[in-house]
Write a structure and sequence with these properties.
The chain is of the alpha/beta class and about 210 residues long. The protein contains 5 helices and 8 strands; from the N terminus they run βαββββαβαβαβα. Strands 5-2-1-6-7-8 form a 6-stranded parallel beta sheet. Strands 3-4 form a two-stranded antiparallel ribbon. It is globular, with a radius of gyration of 16 Å. The mean pLDDT is about 95. Bound molecules: pyrazine-2-carboxylic acid and zinc ion. The site of zinc ion has 6 residues, from loops.
Length: about 210
């Protein structure tokens, strides 16, 4: 396998380290704030860092509250397929949508907002949940000559996993830094995504491996 040590053509993609995904937030991931320390530890080894920010309008289709009679964590069929319904979270301009105050990555080159179309969710940083509407990140990486993606953040089995699998679809080598992520683990979703990682060639490693190379 090629070196795991970050080079000038590698980017650290820090996914959705926002208040609503951390303890006390509207869609809190257990121990979500614990990703911040390992993210800071590996971040100093990267020349390029991109942050993603889940950024929904109040009428977003992923909110159970916008589907009368539905509860969070149920799924429904939308035009593009099955969609899990979530509590209202990461609403544009609200404190829950802000990055966690302890996250300190002023050197990040891009903040990519996603999930801003009312009628479609976007777990992945590359494509919305219809799997065809691009966010522009693939083009950004290509134009800037960024060739490998390291992933960290929240949630391991949703936005991190979808981003990893979509990067592979684009032919981009991907490392997921496992201990710099935390999972929602809804109905076995973490194990299911790990099986997908295996098939797609997403490599899972520890923060210590990034730092040591
Ligand atoms: C996420 C569910 C809904 C995530 C975002 O960041 O993993 N999960 N919106
Ligand atoms: Zn969301």
């Amino acid at each position: 396998m090629d070196s795991m040590r970050p080079s000038a053509q590698d980017v650290l993609l820090v996914v959705d380290v926002q208040n609503d995904f951390c303890p006390g937030g509207a869609l809190a991931v257990a121990h979500g704030d614990e990703v911040i320390e390992p993210i800071h530890r590996i971040a100093s080894h990267f020349e390029h860092i991109i942050l993603t920010q889940d950024w929904h309008p109040p009428d977003h289709t992923s909110f159970a509250a916008n589907h009368p009679g539905k509860q969070p964590y149920q799924s429904i069929q939308l035009s593009y397929g099955e969609q899990t319904l979530w509590p209202v979270h990461c609403v544009q301009g609200t404190p829950g949508a802000e990055f966690h105050p302890a996250l300190h990555l002023p050197q990040a080159e891009l903040v990519l907002r996603k999930g801003f179309h009312s009628n479609i969710d976007s777990y992945s940083a590359f494509f919305e949940n219809d799997r065809v509407t691009p966010t522009g990140l693939g083009g950004y990486l290509r134009e800037r000559g960024l060739k490998r993606v390291y992933l960290a953040g929240l949630a391991y089995d949703y936005c991190v996993a979808y981003s990893a699998l979509d990067a592979r679809r684009l032919g981009i080598p991907v490392f997921v830094v496992r201990d710099a992520c935390r999972a929602i683990d809804l109905h076995g979703s973490a194990a299911r995504m790990e099986a997908e990682f295996e098939k797609a060639g997403v490599r899972v490693l520890a923060a210590a491996q990034v730092v040591v190379g």
